[in-house]
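Quick one:
INPUT:
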């Protein structure tokens, strides 16, 4: 295994972390309705925990309402229960065929709470990046004897630059979401 092989293995893991972070940010509400708010809530469905987006149509009829129409009408109560039990503090209601979620306007206190959640999620992502880096460094130590010292140091430097770029991107996404949340 060479330095380039290890870096090729590292990059997809970091890219997955960034994509996961983007999905997490999309699930935090900003004062207007968004399908991203509920699409990844998992519902117990035929023995598996399935995201709502894979079992229902999610539409936004207006800026304050989310409409969810499950393809299987029998799953309506399970979807409603999953939304109620989520950490989003939403109050869904249904008409027997669809679920309606009316989003109340965000208060300053709630906006501040969401900013704190964003910062916590950003820190989780940075920890994940550090864990991936540590995993790669362990692999690097295993091949240290098989490559030159210059190659080893070059690889460590490239790895650290990529980690720094990733952390900068996480910070940028965090700041952007904070600005979006605090905008009235």
């Amino acid at each position: 295994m060479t330095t380039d092989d290890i870096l090729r293995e590292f990059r997809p893991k970091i890219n997955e972390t960034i994509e996961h972070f983007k999905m997490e940010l999309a699930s935090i509400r900003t004062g207007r309705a968004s399908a991203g708010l509920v699409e990844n809530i998992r519902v117990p469905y035929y023995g598996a925990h399935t995201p709502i987006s894979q079992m229902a149509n999610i539409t936004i009829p207006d800026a304050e309402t989310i409409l969810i129409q499950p393809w299987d009408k029998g799953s309506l109560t399970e979807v409603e229960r999953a939304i109620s039990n989520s950490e989003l503090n939403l109050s869904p209601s249904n008409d027997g065929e669809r679920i309606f979620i009316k989003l109340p306007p965000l208060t300053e206190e709630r906006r501040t709470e969401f900013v704190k959640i964003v910062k916590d999620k950003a820190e989780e992502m940075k920890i994940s990046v550090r864990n991936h880096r540590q995993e790669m460094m362990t692999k690097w130590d295993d091949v240290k004897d098989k490559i030159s010292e210059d190659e080893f140091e070059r690889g460590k430097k490239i790895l650290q630059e990529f980690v720094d770029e990733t952390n900068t991107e996480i910070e940028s996404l965090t700041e952007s979401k904070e600005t979006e949340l605090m905008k009235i």
